[in-house]
Automatic annotation (TrEMBL):
It comes from the Eukaryota. GO terms for molecular function: nicotianamine synthase activity. InterPro entries: Nicotian_synth, SAM-dependent_MTases_sf. Keywords: S-adenosyl-L-methionine, Transferase. Synthesizes nicotianamine, a polyamine which serves as a sensor for the physiological iron status within the plant, and/or might be involved in the transport of iron. Its EC number is 2.5.1.43. This is Nicotianamine synthase. The keyword Transferase applies. The keyword S-adenosyl-L-methionine applies. One of its GO terms (biological process) is nicotianamine biosynthetic process. It catalyses: 3 S-adenosyl-L-methionine = nicotianamine + 3 S-methyl-5'-thioadenosine + 3 H(+). Belongs to the nicotianamine synthase (NAS)-like family. It comes from Corchorus capsularis.
Length: 330
């Protein structure tokens, strides 16, 4: 059982106490400094299993993930509002301090996706769940990697979608290919069958139970054979984001799990919903394919290290507007 005696846990708990006493999590010198320290603390590879934390530390981790999520949302909202004040917001994305990191994140996820998607069969419709006020992953993928694909962005917050829509509305291309839906994803059912690929943001489902509930919902309504790409966390980075274990992906075949050991914060998990296979040649009935060995073999940490992605300099979604961390990562 891992408790307060562990030096990393001690440091994380100290930072949690300071963060939880902040009057506001909006971008400021103090907020940026504390979250910078937290990210730097959790970034290096560290042999810790958060499932073995004692109850008190588990509760602190859960609260800390929610604080990180709130701070991230406020940071994105701040910069989305700033970008929205320009006549052509997409021409100024580089004012977001970690725009270059999103370029690298999108390249990483696109590279993983294309390993399981033929170049002749490009996805036509992609859903991004939890797109937020600054949907940079969708924007970068649509602009740089998937120029004919339409993107449907789902977020439960109407103000986030309003800000996001303002960013793309003046662009003649993206305004035709990017759509925003203000909905709880748990209320989206048959529409999910329309998508070739579904991205699930790291902070949709802030704890294990919530995350699994969302994944089960996607498993029920996504089209057979469709791809699910989601973000997880590994080691000490699990103090920043929820963890998705491959075993949580019921109804999916896990194709790739990438645990970065560099500056990329999130792990990336790619899975395919089991396809339908004919039960008989005469009745035209179908069942969901359930391979007998895949789940058993996928319920462990598989590190897929391929060299072009091994040195990605990326803070990912916990982008902190702070010069020190920028120097640390550059």
């Amino acid at each position: 059982m891992v408790c307060e005696k562990d030096p990393l846990v001690t440091k994380v708990c100290e930072l949690y106490e300071q963060i939880s006493r902040l009057e506001s999590l909006k971008p400021s010198k103090d907020v940026n400094m504390l979250f910078t320290q937290l990210v730097v603390t959790c970034m290096p590879p560290y042999p810790i299993d958060v499932t073995k934390l004692c109850k008190n530390i588990q509760e602190i981790r859960s609260k800390l993930i929610r604080l990180c999520g709130e701070a991230e949302g406020l940071l994105e909202s701040h910069f989305s509002t700033l970008l929205g004040s320009y006549e052509n917001p997409l021409h100024h994305l580089n004012i977001f301090p970690y725009y270059s990191n999103y370029l690298k994140l999108s390249q990483l996820e696109f590279n993983i996706l294309t390993k399981h998607y033929s170049s002749q069969n490009v996805p036509t419709k992609i859903a991004f769940i939890g797109s937020g006020p600054l949907p940079l992953t969708s924007i970068v993928l649509a602009s740089n990697h998937l120029p004919t694909t339409t993107f449907h962005n789902y977020d439960i917050d109407p103000s986030a979608n309003s800000k996001a829509l303002k960013l793309v509305s003046s662009d003649p291309d993206l305004s035709e290919r990017m759509f925003f839906h203000t909905m709880d994803i748990m209320d989206v059912t048959n529409e999910l069958k329309e998508f070739d690929v579904v991205f699930l943001a790291a902070l949709v489902g802030m704890d294990k139970d919530e995350k699994v509930k969302v994944i089960d919902h996607l498993g029920k309504f996504m089209a057979p054979g469709a791809i699910l790409m989601l973000r997880s966390a590994h080691g000490a980075r699990a103090f920043l984001y929820p963890v998705v274990d491959p075993c949580d992906l019921r109804g999916f075949e896990v194709l790739s799990v990438f645990h970065p050991t560099d500056d990329v914060i999130n792990s990336v998990v790619l899975a395919r919903k089991f396809p339908l296979i004919p039960m008989t040649t005469t009745t035209k009935q179908f069942s969901v394919e359930q391979p007998t060995t895949i789940l058993a073999n996928k319920c462990f940490d598989h590190i897929e290290m391929f060299n072009p992605l091994n040195h990605v300099n990326l803070m990912d979604e916990l982008a902190i507007d702070h010069q020190d961390i920028h120097q640390h990562l550059s």
